[in-house]
């Protein structure tokens, strides 16, 4: 790609758990992972099983930025082949409060008996740290805001050369956070928004920390996003279900994210 491009590639868009089979061939079954290319910078938003599809080699060390530590957002770390190369450097940024050590938190899952190895035992040069915001990654400026999700989850705004992407995953819309997040996402070129549930599912799963397409479109309108990708599909939402929901959106620049989608901004 040209060093003057800002691009997002969907590597995994499933929420909660990965899934596979013929009913998941269009929208995909890997969990949350989005690859942002901004000139020479490569940033991965979350490290779900979609990270398996990421390239191994980059001209500069890539940055993996986690929104939170629920399993669907970290499962790809353990199987990402780059972490087996001793000469390769990767930055892994984990939001945590000041009292916590990010590595210890992650290794409370990446440890026996849940997993055979700690992450630092893979052998690559993995730099694990806590991000300080606003964060500068080359020319990319990253700011964050917390939404409404059990245990908390950060939404991110990435800005590069006058363009922006806002990543709002694992968010259950309610009035207080909506009032903060709408200006945070103002006029973004691309909004990624959690629309895991249908209105009926949402009635049964209030408080689980996820939203609906209706909430997504409300946010899109309020923040004047130019495009929206609906993300964090429920494992029970088959291609047929998501295609039917997509037809009902009736807005040109609103789509359910498909694994492999690439958007040039
Ligand atoms: Zn999730
Ligand atoms: Zn979550």
Written account of the structure:
The chain is of the alpha/beta class and 265 residues long. The protein is 17% helix and 26% strand. It has one domain: Metallo-beta-lactamase, Chain A. It has helices at residues 102-107, 175-184, 199-204, 213-223, 239-249, and strands spanning 6-12, 33-38, 41-45, 63-65, 89-93, 125-129, 135-137, 140-146, 154-160, 163-168, 190-194, 228-231, 254-256, 262-264. The strands form two sheets. A seven-stranded mixed sheet has the order 6-5-4-3-2-1-14, with no helix packed on it. It has a seven-stranded mixed sheet with strand order 7-8-9-10-11-12-13. Helix 2 (175-184) crosses helix 4. The radius of gyration is 17 Å and the shape is globular. The structure holds zinc ion (ZN) (2 copies).
List keywords for this structure.
14 strands; seven-stranded mixed sheet; globular; alpha/beta; about 260 residues; Metallo-beta-lactamase, Chain A; binds zinc ion
The major beta sheet can be summarized as:
7 strands, mixed
Helicity level, as a percent range?
Answer: 10-25%
Q: In terms of per-residue confidence, which ranges show pLDDT below 50 for 5 or more consecutive residues?
A: none
Radius of gyration: 17 Å
Ligands, deduplicated: zinc ion
Distance between the termini: 13 Å
Name the CATH homologous superfamily.
Ribonuclease Z/Hydroxyacylglutathione hydrolase-like
- Kindly report the spatial arrangement of strands forming the biggest sheet: 6-5-4-3-2-1-14
């Amino acid at each position: 790609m040209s060093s003057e491009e800002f691009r997002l590639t969907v590597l995994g868009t499933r929420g909660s758990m990965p899934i596979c089979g013929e009913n998941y061939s269009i929208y995909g079954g890997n969990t949350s992972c989005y690859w942002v290319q901004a000139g020479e910078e490569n940033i991965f938003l979350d490290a779900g099983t979609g990270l398996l599809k990421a390239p191994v080699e980059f001209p500069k060390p890539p940055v993996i930025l986690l929104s939170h530590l629920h399993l669907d957002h970290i499962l790809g770390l353990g199987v990402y082949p780059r972490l087996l190369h001793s000469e390769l450097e990767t930055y892994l940024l984990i939001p945590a409060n000041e009292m916590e050590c990010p590595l210890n938190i992650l290794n409370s899952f990446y440890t026996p008996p849940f997993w055979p190895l700690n992450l630092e035992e893979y052998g690559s040069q993995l730099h694990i740290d806590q991000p300080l915001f606003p964060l500068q990654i080359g020319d990319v400026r990253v700011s964050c805001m917390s939404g409404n999700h059990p245990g908390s989850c950060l939404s991110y705004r990435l800005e590069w050369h006058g363009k922006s992407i806002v990543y709002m995953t694992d968010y259950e819309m309610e009035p207080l956070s909506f009032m903060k997040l709408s200006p945070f996402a103002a006029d973004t070129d691309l909004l990624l928004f959690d629309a895991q549930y249908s209105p009926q599912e949402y009635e049964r799963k209030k408080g689980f920390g996820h939203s609906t397409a209706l909430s997504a479109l409300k946010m899109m309108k309020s923040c004047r996003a130019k495009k929206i990708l609906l993300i964090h599909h429920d494992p029970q939402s088959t291609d047929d279900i998501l295609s039917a929901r997509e037809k009902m959106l009736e807005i040109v620049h609103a789509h359910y994210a498909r694994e492999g989608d690439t958007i040039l901004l």
